[in-house]
Amino acid sequence: MKKLSVLIMLLATASVCFGQNETQKITGLGKLKLGDPVSVLDGLGYKNGGKIDKDKPFYYYTYDNSNSKKYFEIVADTTLKYLDYNAKYDNRVKSFLFPKYEIINGLFLEGMILRFFNGALYEISSSNASSDLNDALTLKYGEPKTKTETKDNQFVNQLTGATITKTDIAYYFTYETGDSDIVCRYTLDKYYDSKGKENYLSIFVLEKTSVREEVDNTDKATRERLKAKEKDLKKKNLDGL
């Protein structure tokens, strides 16, 4: 019943929640719209909690209830101690984590990350998105395009020596946004780690593709330079070996 009431409320407040216009464009989420300035954070009702402490695991911020009304800046570390995948190694980008963002009353997005490029919001994402959000998007905008991908992995049973096949599977739900440069997608991903343990991710992303691609290229190049620098430092420490 609670889930149904949330979806009904979402429909009733569509113009506020998802930036709807006559052509059903998806341009944002809740009070957030792609292209918003960084100052939009001031009007969301969340307290600035400062910068992420890199000595704490990233999930700490999501699962600690005391952080539910705060947001934190994710800052890339260039000391070579960390190469955090949540950070972007591009000085034009600012990234912020909202451990628990309330889109509307009763509909939350946990672990929400906002990214701004040259001061403009280009990405809203989470790797811990509730299926309620996917249901709400489907109810509002209609059925998404769906795609399924699988990947077989081979593991060896340490007791018997037998080879075991375990299959990763990802379900993609992609919504029509009305703009070829904007992607709105929900992904349910079941995968196995190097030890054969089953894991799940539920990923939501709303982004400007052209900006994300530019940022990713810069981020990749910077990470490669940092790794090369780290390798050189390790080799230097072997002088005299």
What does this structure look like?
The structure is a single chain. About 8% of the residues have low confidence. Helix 1 crosses helix 4. The longest helix has 28 residues. The protein has five helices and eleven strands, in the order ααβββαββββαββββα. Strand 5 and strand 6 form a beta hairpin. It is α+β, with helices and mostly antiparallel strands and 241 residues long. The chain has one domain.
Comma- or semicolon-separated keywords:
241 residues, alpha+beta, 9-stranded mixed sheet, 11 strands, 24% helix, globular
Uncertain segments are 4-22
Q: Any idea what the shape is? A: globular
Distance between the termini: 69 Å
Number of strands: 11
Overall pLDDT, averaged? 86
The helix content, as a percent range, equals 10-25%
Detail the topology: elements first, then pairings.
Blueprint: H1 2-12, H2 14-17, E1 28-29, E2 32-33, E3 47-51, H3 59-63, E4 70-74, E5 93-104, E6 107-117, E7 120-126, H4 131-141, E8 145-156, E9 163-175, E10 182-192, E11 198-208, H5 209-236
What's this, in brief?
The chain is built from 5 helices and 11 strands; from the N terminus they run H-H-E-E-E-H-E-E-E-E-H-E-E-E-E-H.
